[in-house]
Amino acid sequence: xxxxxxxxxxxxxxxxxxxxxxxRDVDFSLGAGEIHGLIGENGAGxxxxxxxxxxxxxxxxxxxxxxxxxxxFRSAHDARVAGIGMVHQELSVVPDLSIAENVFLGxxxxxxxxxxxxxxxxxxxxxxxxLGIDADPSAPLGGLPIGMQQLVELSRVLFSxxxxxxxDEPTSALSPPEIERLFAVLRRxxxxxxxxxxxxxxxxxxxxxxxxxTIFRNGRTIVSAPVSAATDKHxxxxxxxxxxxxxxxxxxxxxxxxxxxxxxxxVLETEHLSHGAAFRDVxxxxxxxxxxxxxxxxxxxxxxxxxxxxxxxxxxxxxLRMAGRALRFRxxxxxxxxxxxxxxxxxxxMLFAEEPVYKNTSIAILERLSRLWLRPRxxxxxxxxxxxxxSIRPPLVDRAVRTFSGGNQQKVGLxxxxxxxxxxxxxxxxxxxxxxxxxxxxxxxVRALRERGIAIVVVSTEPETVLALxxxxxxxxxxxxxxxxxxxxxxxxxxxxxA
Length: 499
Ligand SMILES: Nc1ncnc2c1ncn2[C@@H]1O[C@H](COP(=O)(O)OP(=O)(O)OP(=O)(O)O)[C@@H](O)[C@H]1O
Ligand SMILES: [Mg+2]
Description:
Elements: E1 8-17, E2 20-30, E3 35-40, H1 46-53, E4 61-66, E5 69-71, H2 76-81, E6 84-87, H3 99-103, E7 110-111, E8 114-115, H4 117-130, H5 146-158, E9 164-168, H6 176-191, E10 195-199, H7 203-209, E11 212-217, E12 220-226, H8 233-241, H9 245-250, E13 255-257, E14 266-275, E15 279-287, E16 291-295, H10 302-309, E17 317-322, E18 325-327, H11 332-337, E19 340-343, H12 357-368, H13 376-389, H14 406-418, E20 424-428, H15 436-451, E21 455-460, H16 463-469, E22 472-477, E23 480-486, E24 489-491, H17 492-498
Parallel strand pairs: 3-10, 3-11, 6-9, 9-10, 16-21, 16-22, 19-20, 20-21
Antiparallel strand pairs: 1-2, 1-4, 4-5, 7-8, 11-12, 13-24, 14-15, 14-17, 17-18, 22-23
Helix pairs in contact: 12-13, 12-14
Adenosine-5'-triphosphate (ATP) binds at residues 17, 20, 22, 40, 42-48, 89, 394, 403-408, 435.
């Protein structure tokens, strides 16, 4: 095979933030018509390198060449003009604007100098249809679930005409059918000669879609290689984290044995619970010291169910009982008083980005305890414990949350809620954005909470997460319970088949 010169070539890139070196002498190259997977632990430097390519950071060391010519972008606009588009890890959509306006944000089509609304609505509808979204483009984006918002953001860059497309964790809120549709679009773009960088912690997905992969560790390039039979998941994990890969892989592949606990007391029960078009006739029981997994594709009603358990949504029909007593929550404060806690899927947006980690992790306690308790020393100590148990990196409780990598912010968002000691803990997408090692930490923490007798509900669109955490699994499909697995041996395939 003839080796053409790469379209984009970065050499010896270095970048530091204050005293922290995020990238050290990184080399990276991307061919024309190539899908290139970028892999590495939380904080490895993936987003930082991509932001350099996309012109977000312009102070760095090293050189960048585009089609053989040295370039140094001064702004994101510069990079866009050069044909580089990026979908950032943190959603940058505008919830108050319509879906169509979000699709064409910054590049609204005009006719004779005025915005061509009809053209925009038509264009948006067609683009979204190719990603499988059937939504009214004139409706406000904020009304869509987070996974759909992620697709809208993707469509903006995918169809912008950029010749280099950078996708920083584009699938974190998507479920298998949407991911498949996205991959079909990516393959079409590749055939059209576009180049794509694909960042994800879902290693199977990266290996499935990419022609080549690059692995980062600690701000350095460990290896770049074409994807082949030899570059399997095992190979990747070994290079990604250096050691302990066998242990990690174990819990994420193959068969899972569910250990239901039919004799433990029932803590929470729902009977024929329904809410609008979101879900209907959901009857569940949750026992002390068990983890109930609720699995389903995006939009199957699982998020609304979680919110209903927590009093954020009110059921139209059906009953909710705790320890046999019927409950009707009018708001979340009542649910909390009854001993129910919810860790929402959008926890990063609830962080105070400019505040240090220790303040962010203690907010949940401050709500519960009197102000007298506000002692910075104690807050810092609690935060330091979380930082350790979730391996938050760098382990600095005084740093502003904004300066942490995406996955590490997710961990801070989770830590904040683990200070609670509820009777029922509802975790929505607890491992989103986390690398394999961090997911393992979450598994360990959830098990410890279960040992304390807390009844836990894990709601997720990630089959691996549900399988690794749950003692019993309920599969939801289009708003209803489709199947329940208990005391069984189950694999990812069987779970997917039921959804
Ligand atoms: N604005 C910033 N200020 C200070 N430090 C930063 C900033 N942005 C990133 N860093 C640091 O640079 C390092 C690399 O972060 P980066 O966001 O590139 O990681 P990542 O590989 O994308 O991780 P993740 O998988 O969690 O998204 C981390 O140690 C992070 O804390
Ligand atoms: Mg990142």
